[in-house]
Design brief:
TIM Barrel, 8-stranded parallel barrel, 3-stranded mixed beta sheet, 15% strand, polysaccharide degradation
Amino acid sequence: MSSPFLWGVASSAFQIEGALAEDGRAASVWDTFAQRPGAIRDGHSPAAACDHYRRWEEDVDLLDRLGVNAYRFSIAWPRVVPRGRGAVNRAGLDFYDRLVDALLARGITPVPTLFHWDLPQALEDGGGWRSRDTAYAFAEYAAVAADRLGDRVGRWITLNEPVVHMAYGHAFGVHAPGLTLDVPDVLGVAHHLLLAHGLAARELRSRGLEALLTNNYSPVAPATGSAADADAAGAYDALHNRLFTDPVLTGAHPDLSAFGAKEVPGVRDGDMELVLGSVDGIGVNYYNPSVVAAPGPGSGLPFDFGEVPGAPTTAFGWPVVPEGLGRTLDLLVERYGDALPPLYVTENGASYADAVAPDGRVADPERIAYLEGHVGAVEAARGRGVDVRGYFAWTLTDNFEWAEGYHQRFGLVRVDHATQVRTPKDSFAWYRDLIASRTGA
């Protein structure tokens, strides 16, 4: 009998948990980065976030009310192995143990992510993802988490959006750890992230568990029919969509010559063999497509971005194009064929500036329209034969949105970050009813 389709929501530890210095948790790169003047919009502090560490039972009750049958969350590496390697913090593991049991008691499948960008600061001090040793530290941490939770959790995600962490954190400096490295060093970070995935997948699979890798995907179109724009679109596609997918499904890196790279540095004998075939599923995070043009003077990159014509935008300024999700799923099938494992849409959502009305209601019709369009794109793709096995809306609660602080609200539940009061939005009721209609609940 095939497993039921997973209808869920997704979250990440650093964005919701708070309690950043409790129960033995040590600092992550994001704790350090958030203290830099100007790093976080308006100086917002992640110290409390959504206070999920204390209010997790309330949030599990919300999941139960929502009717999801799966919940994607992340485990905070610095809460479990505070220095990244060595001593394990049992109190931190206990938190996730309680969470997993509570989810299962409500019929909700836990889908944990091992790395959602919160590298222990102690590892960053030793070189972070610039160091090959960090990949081995990650595998050790994966084994610790799997040994504690693997008797109840069968499906694991190793890394979340490594291309975003690589680029925003190590090339552009706008995310933690806030570095602006040269291209060879950035590509070295990419390889160590891929190696970390491969090593962790080996640990998970040796315990009879599934290993997934979640990537951010954006279908790319050239701004015009010119050859220069087509070349630019190809360069961006290789970087954004293929750098962390080609190796695990084909055993080779995409063509990165547009970035002046003949090869990815740091690759040793056996690395690509380890990475090839290391996924039991691909997580697809989709928010918007990209229009790419040839770079202008002084760009520093082999591409520039254009506007998606005629598309409405979210509060983040991202174009709303539901058919782009369907195109993403089709492209993965076209590109990788029989090598493609099952797909899971592990993030999809939109930020809008919603507010609580005097009657207590939070109306968010734009978010409902966004979700309706994208769920429709997933279901249409499944109708075309694409093997999509889950859809996770981003996110349950308004959270700490990285460098944007608390300005961007993606949640189905509004959070007053001064009081931590949770108010389900109209989209919460819409998604609840959708899930019920699809599952017969």
